Amino acid sequence: MAEVPVQVAAETAVLQASPTATGLMLQIQDPGNHAWMLQSSTTGTSWTNHTTYRVFNGRLDIPVTRNGPVRMFRLNSDVAGTVSSSAAAALTLPASPYNYANPSLPLHLTTPQILGQINTPAANPITNAGATLGRALFYDKRLSANQTVSCASCHQAEHGFSDPRQFSIGFDGRATDRNSMGLTNARYYLRENFFWDERAATLEEQVLLPIQNELEMGMSLSLLITRLSAEPFYTELFTAAFGSPAIDSNRISRALAQFVRSIISGNSKYDQGVPVNFANFTASENRGRQIFQGQAGGCAACHGSDNFVPGPAIFNNGLENPYIDKGVGRVTGLAQDEGFFKVNSLRNIALTAPYMHDGRFATLEQVVEFYNSGVVNHPNLSPQLRLPPGPPGSPPPPPRRLNLSAAQKADLVAFLKTLTDTSLTTDPKFSDPFRYGAQ
Do the domain assignments include residue 439? Predict the structure, then answer.
């Protein structure tokens, strides 16, 4: 294989090469997103210039053909020419924008109950152009201090927009202190608040906080605005979304929130089963559905409706006593708030392991067993997880024990897996839009 030296620009870059049928594939890892001139040489002392390439989001793959006496290739930023930084050059966008604003949903997801769960503010409706901008921002590593992680680093589409690690790894290699929450159907949270401890009043507020968090992305909003303003393709996207090229934190927030709210599941096996009275389910899945929705499991008390989300309440599910992470109580400092955590939608739950705010459960089977036999008697334990109360003046009743058989627990897990919607997690309109292959 030919020698492939690398010439480093102002920031660190790494060049790797792998053989192909006709030559080499050069892959440059460059968080600084520089322009690079491809050069070749037969001697290593005299170099011939070829094409200038631009890195748009930290990585670029460049195919080269080995012919004649050429022995070496390199990428040199010092002699790089000008490269178009238009949206067409940087991003793989369709000729007509993807439909984010008015997705086609099955009838059972258009009922008054479901519509009443939507937390979209009147001041920030989802638009196709706004969500397109939000998609680019969601995947852009410019949002972190050293340009190495993006929102998608901790909210990966194939994992239901969550992180398969117990704790996510931030921009400087340190771990966060909570498990990354899946984003599927974040639009349908009646309480509107976000984060496990609900410390953000709206999604618009929430999306800016990880960017500024010292463990997650370590960025200042002023530097982010400067970075984005330096990219011509963002000028195009902000103009399309908001009518002018101005870039500010309010517009960044609104675009990211639009994209996140557009991540809606409506094509799971469960959804396909609703109009046919679940004739498409296996016997095990139907038994699990009955356990979930009935008294035997009581799961729908906290995961209600066809979106499997809570109503106006927040819950303490008795994970431990005392709580190491106090949840809402960590924010308010009040004992009566300890152990309360946001309840997420169960849609795509089979993809979002590990589970709970601290990722303590690796499998759905472990989660089911916890609710079957492991709920801890905490003073703030939600009534839905206790036995019925006794006469007036009686002490709080102990936690419920579902006493499910092994077969019933397996049935419940089988039902939860019917909530998986891979048509969402593989949909191109939610994928990384950046170009990583040379044109």
Answer: no
Query: Number of structural domains, the chain?
Result: 3
Distance CA 236, CA 239 (A): 5
Asked if residue 315 and residue 412 are part of one domain, the reply reads yes
Q: How many residues does the chain have?
A: 439
Residue 20 lies in a domain: yes
Give the tens place of pLDDT for each residue, 65-96.
877 777 788 888 889 988 889 999 999 999 99
Whether residues 405 and 284 fall in one domain:
yes
pTM beyond 0.90, yes or no: yes
The secondary structure of residue 195, as a DSSP letter, is S
- 404 and 275 co-located in one domain: yes
Contacts of 131 (CB under 8 A, 6+ apart): 98, 100, 101, 255, 258, 259, 262
Radius of gyration over alpha carbons of the chain, in Å? Answer: 25
pLDDT tens digits, one per residue of 292-310: 999 888 999 999 999 999 9
Query: Are both 171 and 140 inside the same structural domain?
Result: yes
Q: H or E stretch including 63? A: strand 59-65
Residue 36 lies in a domain: yes
Summarised one tens digit per residue, pLDDT across range 331-378 is 999 999 999 999 999 999 999 999 999 999 999 999 999 999 999 999
* Inter-residue long-range contacts of 164-168, CB under 8 Å, 24+ positions, other chains counted: 164/353, 164/354, 165/359, 166/354, 166/358, 166/359, 166/360, 167/359, 168/216
Domain interval for residue 66: 14-83
Examine the pLDDT at 316 and tell me if it is beyond 90.
yes
The verdict on residue 5 lying in a domain is no
